[in-house]
Each structure stands twice: as C-alpha cells, then as structure tokens.
Design brief:
Chain lengths: ~325, ~475
C-alpha cells in the first residue's frame, strides 16, 4: 500500500501543479479577449471619466457618448452590457472601481420596470458568470457569483479546484481566445465603438411589432439589493449617482396599474433613501416617434442620438 | 454499505420509486428460494416472478404506448371509447434491472444458480449502483458470489478501474456530449436542414450513441472494479463489425446475450427448420426494439436489424460469389473495409429510426439524406466560397462551428487510434504493461484533454437512462 501511496501522491501532485499553472495562465489570458466588452472595460486601468452610463442593452444601445462629450464637454463611457441584470453590472463596476481604480464623477444608472422585476423574466442569461470566473479568487467577485449561481457547490469547486471553472465553460473560453473576431452574437458584443456603445439599425417598422402589456407587479428583492449595492459602491468612491429611465415606444407598451405603481414606488424609495436625482425619461420626446426605435424597448441610431441630446440637456440643467 | 449507497443513488432520482424496486426484489427473492425448495412448483413460481417483473415494466413503460395506439384505432373505427393516459415518469433503469432480476429467477429455475438466501446480497444484485440504471445487465453467476467474497485492497484493480473510468469520461464528455450539440437540433427539426447535413447528423449520432452508452458502461464497470467487483464487458469495438450478426456480438453484449439465452435459444435458435429460425430472429429483434422504448421508431429499428440479418443470411452465398468474381476476396484489406463500411452504414440507417422523434421524421431524413449526397457533390464543385462547409458543420457560422467540429474529429480519431492499439483487450490491461512515464503521460493527457475539450456546461444526460 505504501509504495503505491507515494506514487499516487506524486502523480496527483504533478497534475495538480500543472493544473494550477494552467489555471494561472488562463486567468491572465482570457481577460485579454478585449473584443468581449466586459474584458475591454476591465482592460483599462486608472481611467478618469466625467460621465458613465450603466445598465443593460437599453443603455448599451441608447447612450451616444459623443453627444454627451460634445454638449457637456466631458469624457463619457458606456458601461451598458447586453442582457444583464444589476448583479452583473455591480460586479463589473466593483472590479473597475476597486481593482482598476477607475474614477467616475457622475454615474447614470438606468432604472426601469424590466430591470427591477425578476431578471430571469427580462433576460435570458442575466448573470454571465463565466465572464467573471477568471476573477473568482477575489472575494467580492466570489460572493456575487455564488449568490447568482443556482448550484453554489459548483462555485466553490470553481474557486478551489484549479481549472474547474475553465472546464465548465471551456468552449466559450477557447472561442473567446482563438476565434473572437469571428464569434457570433452572444459570444460577445463585437461591434461596440470606442465609447462602448452599440447602435442598432432599424429593419422594420416598430408599429408592426406586437404590443407589450406588463402585469407582473412584484419587484425582485435581490435585484433591488444589487441596485443599492451599485449606488453605495459609487457613493463610497465619491461618485455622484443619477437615476434615469430609457424611453420605450409608448404606443406599444402598457402596464397594469399595480405593476406601474410598485415599480414607481421602488424608484421613489431609492430616490429618497439615497437622496438621488431621477430623470424620468421613459416617456421622453422620442418615445412617440416610431422612426427613433429599433424595437419597442430599444432606440435605433437616430433615437440614441436624439435621446442622448435630450438627456445631456437635462444633466446640464440640474 | 454498498446496498445503502445503491439505495441513496436510486432515490436521488424519484425517492418513492424505490418501493417498486423493493416489490420486485421481494417477489424474486422469495421466488428464487421457493423454486429451489419446491421443484414440483418451480414452473408456476417462475411464471409468477416473470409476470410481476414484466407487469411492472409493462405498466410503467408501455401502458401509455398501448393506450395511445388503442385510442387512435378507436378514433379511426369510430368506437367512441378512449383510454385515459397516465401521467407517470418511468422509473430510472427499469428495463435494465427488470431483465437482471429475471435472469436470476430463470437461472435458479434452470438449476444453474443456487437461490440467494441473504436478502441484502440479493437486493444488492438488483440494485448495485454502478450498473443499476443502464447496465451491463449482469448474470447472477457472475456477480452474486463476488458480493459474498471479502475484497481486499488491490492497487492493480484500482488502477485499471480508474483508467477505464477516465476512458469512459473521455467518450461521454468529450465525444458524445459534443456531438449532442451538433446532432440534437437536426433530429429535433430535420426539415430545416439540407440532405447532406442529415447524413452528417446520422453518422455523428452513430458515434454519439456508442460513446454515450459505452462511456457510461466504462465508468460503471471501472467504478465497480475500483471496489474490487468485476462486471461483464458490454462493448467490443462494435463499429469494426463485418456483419450485422458480428455487430450484435459486439454491441450491448449483456442485452444481446440475454435475449440469446432467455428468448432465442428457448424458441429453438437456429436448430429448427429455416422458416422458424427466421421467425426466431424476427421475434428477438422486434422485442429488443420494443425493450428500448415504447415507440414505433424503436420497433422499426429492431425490425430493420432483423431484416438485415435475414437478408444477410439469404444472400450470403450470392455475396460470396460476387466478391470472388470481382476479386475482392483476394484483396483482404478491401474485403474487410467493404464489410466494415457496409455494416456501419446499415447500422447508421437503423440508428436514424432509433433517434428520430417520429417514424415520418426518420423516413424523411433517410430519403433526403440519400438525395442530398449528389446535390452536395455538385455544390462543392460549383461553389467558389467556403459556404459549402456550412451544411457539413450543421450551423451557419461555419468558422466558429468548424472549431467544434475539428475538436470532435480529433477526439474521434483518438478514439479510433486507441481502439486500434488496444485491440480486443481491456484498455487498462494494455496500458498497465507500459513504463510508468508513458502511463502517466497518457493519464495526464486524457485528464487535460477532458478538462479542455469536454462539454461540461449543460452536458446531456446519458441516452440509455431513458430506457
């Protein structure tokens, strides 16, 4: 038994060491795939921004930073990511501010009905845990990933067993590393501009799209907690926080009374609790103009420009 | 300990279903003892045991199938009567442990096996977790005595078991689950794909089902070997078979020998007039198909294999003469290749029925696949861009999917090389004869290959778990 045990220990030792080396290599190499917007944002260190916008695709597609820079004479960045909930927005901002020392003067956080209800009903994959696994050794990231992954035991395995995290999502990582320029939508947001925005071209009339009626009146508690964490994180780092809502094509969107009231109560509570400014721009000037929309909830290129201009005026006034 | 582990393992799926398993265990346990004690009543006791086992199998697995077909018939004949369907989930591994339990009572009845007096040992024989859900379907002579023996730590067995498990994981996680990513969408909606894509999906499915099922068996047999208990081998390079009967001596060996011993031979086997011999073959394959699943696709799959066998037997002399006339018999490699290739294609066509959701989908896939080949050749010859690659990778973004396909082809090549090197021998035995440096390198290579190229995320369940 003993000679066998020695051999087993040696074999396991060699392989675990190799795994640990590969783990370290992957942790450093995968975030270099800067065609993935998250990694592009995290590749920047010690940056100063006057204005940053954070939220899901409605931020990614609607905020034209050039307009803000021109009208407000500032440096702006779009932190919007496609199909993400507040938990992912929080972990991204945390890494940017606390690890990459990004300084942001004013953070515009998008709040909307869709962001505040259960993220699983708004987004198909609200927390892209695999993007953040190379950072899992950091406690802050680990906690968020753990809270947003169904199988929590797995998260411990990802953290403590070398390369387990890589194995789980190896296909996505290998494609990111070797095929990123050819990756299809979903692997990454390939065509974001130098400010991080992706603009949409209208392909068909929004009036032809099916109208949306929203009746879910339960605002998700966990989601609200992460929204509050974003606000607190920003405030801790000396950032002014502003809330706003991206426009929807109002002719095609209706809410049940209770859904609308609960959503507005949640936003008002936050406003009061953190003493925040809120720009209620869901029904902004553009929201009746069909030509400004890509679909019912997303602006197109023209819409993004027009809305950014309106919002920059509002920001300048207050 | 093993029995407790097996109970927990089984209850992991649907806990209350363990009661069904216990019912069959109790019936067969007492049936075995009573058959031995009362030889004059042994036939009726065997019948009771078989009726219990088959009855439970029929109820859970086939009730809805018969009810649906009855309702359709009733509809057509305007009987105005329908049987309501049951909303039940099939107990996991039911077909497997039912057959294993039946082999016990039949062997006790035949006097080849002493009745097991220890209830725990008998329960373990039926429930032994490494092979509970998808076989191999063991015989009492092979395993019952092993449960009585004391198993001391054996490093060699441990090594062999772990090597086999590693090999099983490679087949399942790297090959089968990666193929599932390509093949599942095609079988779910074959009408959206070109003929050549359907052919590629069918060929890939042949590898998927082999790697999925034999991968499970390797993991199960390996895990059992680690604990010192040897289970029978269930596969022996089935796609190197030179005929359909050769295929069945290499594929799911524990099931094919079960049917041979408990159905084919009792029916008279081949020692009966030719017409009865052919009938026996048809019966065995149809029942084998039906055993796999309560769907006409499985019955046709079985029927197709029966047809292959009969056609092979009827044309054996003619084919031999043709081979001689064309001089193929003189070129041994060509002779072997043509036999292996033909068998593989026939088996693949049958797998289409096995995998397809409906008979009409399967027929469509085969028809379109055959028509699609010449169309595709024409496309390759005329297309200037690399767009002709698209239907081969079964997706539109061929550059990205090509990556998956290359990984897959390399993995299948590794599979075939290993099969070629190990021959008929167990992979563990062969590898353990090599120097330590080679062994360790091979182990590490496979560990890293699985970690880098295994399809872990949303990995598919084992195909044979549904049976």
């Amino acid at each position: 038994m003993r000679p066998h045990l020695k051999r087993v220990i040696l074999f396991v030792g060699i392989n675990v060491s190799l795994l640990a080396i590969l783990d370290a290599i992957m942790c450093s190499q995968i975030p270099k795939s800067v065609a993935i917007k998250n990694y592009w944002l995290l590749s920047k260190t010690d940056q100063n921004y006057d204005l940053a916008f954070i939220g899901p695709s409605r931020v990614l597609n609607s905020m034209d930073c050039e307009v803000f820079e021109r009208k407000l004479n500032c440096k702006a960045i779009n932190l919007g990511l496609s199909g993400v909930g507040y938990a992912e927005q929080y972990v991204l901002l945390k890494l940017m501010m606390e690890e990459n020392h990004a300084r942001i003067k004013k953070l515009c956080v998008e709040v909307s009905y869709y962001n505040l209800i259960n993220p699983d009903s708004s987004f198909s994959y609200p927390f892209h845990e695999y993007i953040y696994l190379p950072y899992l050794k950091k406690d802050g990231v680990f906690d968020v990933v753990k809270n947003n992954t169904k199988d929590q035991l797995k998260v411990y395995l990802w953290r403590y067993f070398p390369l387990a995290w890589f194995a789980e999502f190896n296909n996505s990582y290998l494609k990111m590393m070797f095929l990123v320029s050819n990756a299809p939508p979903g692997i990454g947001d390939m065509d974001f501009d130098e400010h991080g925005s992706v603009f949409l071209k209208s392909t068909e009339s929004v009036n032809k799209k099916v109208a949306h009626y929203y009746s879910n009146s339960t605002m998700d508690l966990k989601t609200k907690v992460y929204l509050e964490k974003i606000i607190e994180l920003a405030k801790r780092n000396g950032t002014e926080v502003v809330l706003y809502t991206s426009p929807v094509y109002t002719k095609k969107v209706t809410y049940s009374k209770s859904a609308w009231n609960n959503y507005r109560n949640t936003v008002n509570q936050l406003k009061r609790k953190y003493n925040l400014k809120y720009f209620d721009t869901e029904k902004a000037n553009v929201s009746n103009d069909e030509s400004k929309f890509y679909d019912i909830t997303h602006l197109n290129r023209d819409g993004a420009m027009a809305f950014s201009s309106d919002l920059s005026d509002s920001l300048a006034k207050k | 300990m093993l029995l407790a582990a097996s109970c927990i393992f089984y209850m992991f799926f649907i806990p209350k279903y363990i009661l069904i398993l216990f019912l069959t265990i109790i019936v067969d346990y007492f049936a075995g003892i009573l058959i031995e004690k009362n030889p004059q009543h042994k036939k009726s006791l065997l019948v009771i045991s078989i009726i219990t086992n088959v009855g439970i199998l029929m109820f859970f697995k086939y009730f809805n199938f018969f009810a649906t077909n009855f309702n359709e018939l009733s509809d057509k004949l305007n009987w105005n009567y329908s049987v309501s369907l049951l909303e039940i989930i099939l107990p996991i591994g039911l077909s497997f442990h039912t057959f294993q339990a039946m082999s016990y009572t039949i062997e006790v009845y035949r006097g080849n096996q002493r009745a097991e007096k220890h209830f725990g040992i008998y329960a373990l024989y039926v429930m032994y977790y490494p092979q509970l859900v998808a076989g191999p379907i063991e015989r009492p002579q092979n395993v019952l005595h092993q449960f009585h023996e004391e198993h001391k730590f054996n490093f060699n067995l441990l090594q062999r078991g772990l090597v086999l498990m590693l090999w099983g994981f490679f087949k399942k996680v790297v090959i089968a689950d990666r193929i599932a990513y390509f093949v599942n969408p095609v079988f779910e909606d074959p009408h959206s794909y070109e003929g050549i894509s359907l052919c590629v999906a069918a060929v890939l499915f042949s590898f998927q089902i082999f790697c999925d099922f034999s991968g499970y068996c390797d993991i199960g047999i390996g895990a059992s070997q680690v604990m010192g208990i040897k289970l029978m081998n269930n596969f022996n390079r089935p796609y190197s078979a030179k005929s359909i009967s050769d295929f069945w001596s290499r594929w799911h060996i524990s099931l094919s020998t079960w049917f041979r011993d408990y159905l084919y031979i009792p029916l008279g086997g081949n020692r009966v007039p030719k017409i009865k011999w052919y009938r026996n073959i048809v019966i065995v394959f149809l029942i084998s198909g039906f055993w796999h699943g309560a769907n006409w696709t499985f019955i046709i799959w079985g029927g197709l294999h029966a047809f292959y066998q009969l056609f092979g037997l009827a044309t054996n002399d003619l084919r031999e003469k043709l081979r001689q006339a064309f001089g193929i018999t003189k070129m041994k490699w060509l002779n072997s290749f043509s036999q292996v290739f033909t068998t593989f294609i026939l088996v693949t066509i049958a797998w289409v029925f096995f995998r397809a959701d409906t008979v009409s989908n399967a027929v469509y896939m085969i028809k379109s696949g055959i028509v699609g080949i010449p169309n595709y050749v024409e496309k390759v010859l005329t297309e200037k861009d690399y767009l002709w690659l698209e239907p081969l990778v079964l997706r539109s973004n061929y550059k990205v999917e090509l990556f998956d396909l290359v990984v897959l082809l390399v993995s299948i090549m590794i599979l075939e090389i290993v099969h070629h090197i190990k021959g008929e021998e167990n992979i563990g035995n062969r590898l353990l004869q090599k120097p330590v440096l080679i062994r360790w390198s091979v182990y590490s290579f496979f560990i890293f290959f699985i970690l880098f190229f295994g399809a872990f995320h949303n990995s598919a369940e084992f195909i044979y778990f549904q049976f």
